[in-house]
Design brief:
The chain is α/β, with parallel strands linked by helices. The chain is built from 5 helices and 6 strands. The protein has a single domain, classed as Rossmann fold (3-Layer(aba) Sandwich), CATH 3.40.50.150.
């Protein structure tokens, strides 16, 4: 299967191509988030991270490759193609994924695990669609947990 190639942190990163559905595309905002995470080593090292609506999980791959989080959770809607791409991006780029766990749940189904996360990031999870209100509420709930623990 073909891959997109982009440069992050001076290295070429291969992102497997999917069927071009929403969760399997490489979105420009995930490239921007990846570059942003490069400059967050002090905030990421030793922390538990979660990428919400992770899709191809490029930002999490970059976090694994260039920083030292203790754990990363990749969250997206339960979809076998997305899960396959998430596994292949780490294999193609020869990045150790022993501290990476894929968790599948839909928006509005927030697990208890969320309270153990130090840093949550998301890129391009707000798009026009019937689930937008649920996504906004989910993000608000997550923010309120960090503001009012």
């Amino acid at each position: 299967m073909l891959s997109d190639a982009i440069v992050v942190g001076g290295e070429v990163i291969l992102v497997p191509k999917g069927s071009d559905t929403i969760g399997t595309r490489l979105w420009p905002s995930s490239v921007v988030m990846s570059h942003f995470l490069l400059f967050q080593k002090q905030r990421i090292n030793g922390k538990v991270l979660m990428e919400m609506g992770s899709g191809t999980s490029l930002p999490s791959l970059v976090a694994c490759k260039f920083t030292s989080p203790s754990k990363i959770y990749l969250q997206d809607f339960p979809n076998e193609e997305i899960i396959s791409i998430q596994k292949r991006i780490f294999e193609k780029n020869r990045v150790d994924d022993k501290n990476v766990e894929i968790i599948s749940f839909g928006w509005g189904e927030m697990p208890e695990l969320i309270q153990k996360i130090d840093l949550i990031y998301s890129s391009d999870s707000l798009y026009q669609g019937k689930g937008t209100n649920i996504i906004i509420l989910e993000h608000f709930q997550i923010l309120s947990l960090s503001i009012f623990p």
